[in-house]
Amino acid sequence: MKADPIESATLEPTPQALKNPLRRYWLATRPPFLTITVAGCILGLAYALYRGAPLNWTTALLTLVGATAIHAAINVLNDYYDALNGSDTNNDDRIYPFTGGSRFIQNQVLTERQTLHYGLALLAAGVSIGAVLTFSSHWSLLALGAIGVFIGWAYSAPPFKLDSRGWGEPCVALGFGILIPLGTDFVQRQSWDWELSWLCLPYGLLVTNILYINQFPDRLADDSAGKHHWVVRLGPERGKWIYVVNVFAATGIVLFAVIAGIAPAIVLLSMLPLVIAARSAAYLIHDAGHPARLLIPIKLTIFSALAHGLTLASILAFIARAH
Known about the structure:
Helix content: over 70%
CATH architecture: Orthogonal Bundle
CATH topology: Farnesyl Diphosphate Synthase
CATH class: Mainly Alpha
Distance between the termini: 55 Å
Largest sheet: none
Order of helices and strands: HHHHHHHHHHH
Shape: globular
Structural class: mainly alpha
Radius of gyration: 19 Å
Number of strands: 0
């Protein structure tokens, strides 16, 4: 089903609606999706408190700004490379603003050149902040940050194009479920704690489902552009079960963390938003072949991921305060 041009013209960005350059460049980063990184950082900070570390507000703020700048850069650069390969330009099934890119290039709000330069500037800002944090902590943070920057850039950029080769989903789970919380915790405590990975991996899987469900409306355009991610490779009827597996895996990992003594039993409360994720899975199972019907499950997927991450962070912070 093709997008309604009248509706698209009303909702999508236009040069006339975005004459203010500050607003234009801010919205080009797709701010609602940046909350995913913010929640990941909050989760890492809450774990540091849970482990008894006093919160350093300066490094916490720098971590938050740096990680968000890198995520914003990845979003902008993804728009640039998807404009080059034609996947966003030829996407008639998009559900704006969730799928099909920001539409800034397609609607002539920014040129391809401006988008590239802006993305590189954001990336440079984020890397600079990371360098400052590394200088004030330990060189090993540089290695973690380098992995994050690489997979973020290589997600869309040639010659790697990880998403086109089926590696986009694992990269999202790694980046949001492990690298961001782990790095944020390290900056506070100067110590690597791999148990945090078990606590945060469910969040990473739920964030991966945000990317994953967004690929259903984009499937035909992505396929024509050579972006052979899992939804393209499997098709909607088989591919929908990966989403379900991620929800069950997230639930199982939370249970494992409690049973194995990695986390206290109260952490089980963070499973409540997974009920919303399960509801979204039911929608997808029914409507995987009808991308125009996926607006509600896309919204539920985003909400369930953020709700789980922030609920878990609140529980950890509450335990820290109680002690």
